[in-house]
């Protein structure tokens, strides 16, 4: 919290020498918060205590907001980041908007993390008959068939984990469990 207040200059302007270390402290703290949240969510899922608030939800709105939020991390890697979705369509489902956004966020964040500088990442929302499909495609490091078989297990990380050591190895496990609770799949 204090690092955030320093970055926001609540205590006055920071000099250039201290600005970067404070931002690193903030980023590290956020990473720890995310890991703790993931662990708590895994515990809730395993104990059957994950609460969902299902309501009519437009997935198009969630995906547009996600796309806007992920612009900064995509730009920081100079990625060509695009959204492929019909402008006029609503994609109404009965879902917990916060939880379903977490699924989309985990998938998009992984794609951005494991795509090399200057690569491409595309998120899309389409219909295939009665099914709504959210997809993330990229030209990242790829996933071997052996890794694919274990990818949605707890604490599992693909080959890209060697190049990106951040994260808990729980994001895709959580994404799959949340998708299943929504009568979907990953």
Strand order of the largest sheet: 2-4-5
The helix tally amounts to 7
Question: Quick one: biggest sheet?
Answer: 3 strands, mixed
Strand % is: 15-25%
How far apart are the termini? 34 Å
- Count of DSSP E strands? 5
Could you list the spans in which at least 5 consecutive residues all have pLDDT below 50?
Answer: none
Structural class: alpha+beta
| Backbone shape | globular
Helix content: 40-55%
The gyration radius over C-alpha positions equals 18 Å
Give an account of the 3D structure.
By secondary structure, the protein is of the alpha+beta class. Helix content is 46%, strand content 16%. It is built from seven helices and five strands. The chain has a three-stranded mixed β-sheet with strand order 2-4-5.
Summary, kept brief:
46% of the residues lie in helices and 16% in strands. The chain is built from 7 helices and 5 strands, in the order ααβααββαββαα.
Give structural attributes.
single chain; 186 residues; alpha+beta; three-stranded mixed beta sheet; two-stranded antiparallel ribbon; 5 strands; 46% helix; globular
List the helices and strands and how they pair.
Elements lengths: L1 H6 L8 H31 L8 E4 H11 L1 H6 L3 E5 L7 E4 L1 H17 L6 E9 L2 E8 L6 H4 L22 H11 L5
Helix pairs in contact: 2-7, 3-5, 5-7
